[in-house]
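Quick log. Single chain, no ligands specified.
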Amino acid sequence: MLAATVLTAPAAAAREPVGESGRESARDAAVPAAALTEVTNFGTNPSNLRMYVYVPESVTPNPAVVVAVHWCTGSGPDMYNGTEYDTLADQYGFIVLYPSVTRSSKCFDVSSPQALRRGGGSDPVGIKSMIDWVTRTYDADTGRVFATGVSSGAMMTNVLLGVYPDVFAAGAAFSGVPFACFGTTDGSEWNSNCSGGTLTRTPKEWGDLVRGAYPGYTGPRPRMQIWHGTEDDVLRYPNFGEQIKQWTNVHGVSQTPTTTDTPQAGWTRTRYGGTGDRASVEAVSLQGVGHNLYAHGMASRVLTFFGLDRSGPAPQPQPGACKVTSTVNAWTTGLTASVTLTNTGTTTVNGWKLGFTLPAGQTVTGGWGATYAPSSGSVTATNVSYNGTIAPGASVSIGYQASHGGNSAAPAAFTLNGTACTAG
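-> predicted structure:
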């Protein structure tokens, strides 16, 4: 049955082979630029994955990281050859990670209990170690780590976002299934009910599976982009709708699309929880297309959803999603600021990060209702356990103390989970 998950790699130009000079450990610091390089001894790796990395010549300071996950019977180098993430990295300066399976099936573990819980072991732990290596070595931006995959890699993308919601900002899954859909307890890697599209659950049941992977987590959840062909005969098309049910529930947004359009003939794109490129969930259905879905040009659309494609449409803030009011009481060298965040949207906010920039000379010395980091400059206030959920029309009040060198003004602008808020 495992042979059924084979996905033929899209055609690509010939590449130079991975050289022995590229086999470096984390202690050797940077890898050669503009070459696919294997890194060894990168950290905890319970399932013996191999790690390949591509760093462009023009890597940006604090680069974003894209984890590109291969299909069954494939490998990290196959994913490198079969997709254009490396050439897009040359253009935009991010780093690409290509995890590679060594087990005989060459499929990622998306079914074992170990893989479906945080810190449980298996493939997700090894992939997290790869990300940590890149973060240490290149001072990568931990707020811009993304996952994308095809077939087995799409299933792993769902798993990674479920197990590590605090690591990934967004994901894009091509021909996959929901988180835990492939779950088994008998050691089998295959779940015929899931692959056949007969495993259906309510949105809450699907959402509870994600929430159960990291009990107690109340922070923001990664956004999800879902791609599926209506004629998929390996991971049947009902899995497309089940993923939509799962991730809209995880985000606390309606299953009714906020927008529906046709970006290309035969494609139907629906967005949930927002109307722009940074909607909570974006789903693209391809009429008449089978399992071998991925095609050249789709990676650019992934980057637009991730917010990494600077030449594409800018990520659109969702209008009227939030309002922030702030007041300051100041004295000679210090101040206290009271901030009220109101959800002016139509869906519940589950987990929030409020971003703002302190005027020059101000330093946060304490606060309440949120955790604040860093203490100066561009600050992010993150919800605490008791106030992470904001219903439509509801508000939360937070505040902080700060020292100042003469400028005691309040911040001029705020963002909620990356979306600009109305200040008033």
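The helical segments are 76-82, 85-92, 123-138, 152-163, 192-195, 203-213, 238-251, 298-306.
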